[in-house]
Design brief:
about 475 residues, alpha+beta, Serine Threonine Protein Phosphatase 5, Tetratricopeptide repeat, six-stranded antiparallel β-sheet, five-stranded antiparallel β-sheet, 17 strands, about 50% helix
């Protein structure tokens, strides 16, 4: 009798344990799911992990845990759980698998998984709408992956975003790029840059548009002052336009835009100037590897030395950017063949995973490194010369040279020489503008030439007058200084 009672007690106890365990597991899963829905992924993840220990083959729990891994940044850990859930036809697992492959750059696999999700999802669901937009993004990236340029990278350096232009070493023939703060010597409300042509007579710069977005303005230098700002027309639609750069040909224009044609954040675009209608042609996204889902911008090219630079914050912590130096391939660009080349190789090239992998021609790399070294050496030499010699060389007589305005003893001579420096700079700007007009005139049709003739004649007259003024001012400064010293 005691034996029977004991068996009954044990059976009841076991049933209570199982029941409590079941309730506990069910309560834990519900708590984890609620945390996930509330966006508390870090709290939900260990809770789902505990649930998996008691139900490792539960497709729903596998999905939730894999989704938590993805949401908390543990991307690689997420894959086997999401794949298991997808194999059991858990609908949302396909959506998360699409996100996984997207993050890995496997855009074809991302599209395949998202198509499965969209085929089974409710079109009236708000998640369905977001997934549809996601599919547009994936297809856009698939398009870019089909045309990845083969680029040889020479160097890269990670710097603070506020100092990124210090990592650029283009020669003076390429013009100059400054931050707005640096160029105008005052704090700007706009995080942008300004490009100044080699001769200092044309500039492109970031400025506000009436829409409230950022745009790119341009102006000419006219004697002592700059012309009014004119917004550049014909750039990418929507978003902010920033970080301008014009090639010395005065036609090819690069800038960054973060509108709908971007892969994400700022992308680098190129357009060309049409002199016939004074507008730029339709802009084109330069594609990979220059652009990525992160911010990519400020492409600068030194054609003379065959080098280029651009900045990106891909894979960088907040406030830091990586500036890449690459071999400029204008006129001889090559692209990977998406049908025959290894997809993994293309993805690595598109993401710039390894600079060494891009260096397939030792002679090209050697020449590029020599050019970069020469440019950096010239920069150091110029800085040293400027520090040692001052701002200019003014020959007073056979025994004396002046290098700074403070070297002048005569106040009148100093003022005259200041005017000389300004006039000389104006003359360089005016001469460059005249040469540009003459070049354009040579290639223009009869109608365009007729409209340009009067302007060119006026420029020629202004250059002649300013040339005479420059010579007179320098001579007068010299005489005034000598008279002062002889007293």
């Amino acid at each position: 009798m005691k034996s029977v009672r004991m068996k009954i007690v044990l059976a009841v106890a076991a049933a209570l344990v199982l029941c409590c365990g079941s309730v506990t597991a069910q309560t834990l899963e519900q708590l984890a799911r609620q945390n996930f829905l509330d966006g508390k992924f870090a709290e939900a993840k260990p809770q789902f992990q505990r649930c998996l220990k008691t139900a490792p083959k539960d497709s729903r729990i596998n999905f939730w845990y894999g989704a938590c891994c993805l949401e908390t940044g543990e991307v690689d850990e997420a894959l086997p759980y999401l794949e298991f859930a997808a194999s059991k036809r858990v609908q949302n697992a396909f959506r998360y698998l699409a996100r996984y492959h997207y993050l890995k750059g496997n855009y074809a696999e991302a599209a395949d998984n998202l198509e499965v999700y969209l085929g089974e999802a409710n079109p009236n669901d708000s998640v369905f709408v977001k997934a549809t937009e996601f599919m547009k993004d994936i297809r856009s990236r698939l398009k870019f992956m089909r045309r990845v340029e083969k680029v040889t990278f020479v160097d890269s350096i990670v710097v603070e975003k506020s100092q990124f232009l210090q990592a650029y070493h283009a020669g003076s023939e390429a013009g100059a790029v400054y931050t707005l703060d640096e160029y105008f010597n005052k704090r700007s409300d706009i995080d942008g840059t300004i490009f100044l042509s080699e001769f200092g007579n044309r500039r492109y710069f970031t400025c506000p548009a009436d829409s409230g977005r950022l745009a790119i303005g341009t102006s000419y230098r006219m004697r002592d002052e700059w012309s009014g700002t004119q917004l550049v027309e014909g750039l990418a639609d929507g978003g902010d336009s920033n970080y301008p750069f014009m090639l010395p040909d005065g036609v090819t224009f690069y800038y960054a835009n973060n509108g709908p044609e971007s892969m994400g954040g700022y992308d680098i675009f190129v357009t060309r100037y049409n002199a016939d209608n004074d507008r730029f042609l339709r802009s084109e996204n330069v594609g990979m590897p220059f652009n990525s889902p992160a911010n990519d911008y400020m492409l600068v090219v030194d054609e003379l030395n065959g080098l280029g630079w651009f900045a990106t914050d891909r894979r960088q912590p907040e406030g830091m950017v990586c500036v890449y130096t690459f071999v400029w391939n204008e006129g001889r660009r090559e692209y990977y063949d998406s049908d025959t080349d290894d997809p993994a190789v293309i993805r690595r090239a598109a993401d710039i995973v390894s600079i060494a992998e891009s260096q397939t021609d030792d002679a090209v790399v050697r020449k590029a490194n020599q050019s970069l070294f020469r440019l950096m050496l010239n920069e150091q030499s110029m800085l040293a010369d400027n520090k040692a010699k001052g701002d200019f060389v003014f020959v007073l007589d056979d025994l004396s040279d002046y290098h700074r305005l403070t070297d002048f003893h005569s106040p009148d001579a100093r003022k005259t020489y200041e005017r000389f420096l300004e006039a000389r700079e104006e003359l360089a700007s005016l001469t460059a503008r005249l040469e540009s007009q003459r070049d354009e005139y040579a290639d223009a049709n009869a109608r365009r030439r007729e409209s340009m003739a009067a302007g060119i004649l006026k420029l020629e007259e202004d250059v002649a007058n300013l040339t005479a003024e420059v010579a007179t001012l320098e001579k007068r400064a010299r005489n005034l200084e000598k008279e002062f010293l002889s007293k």
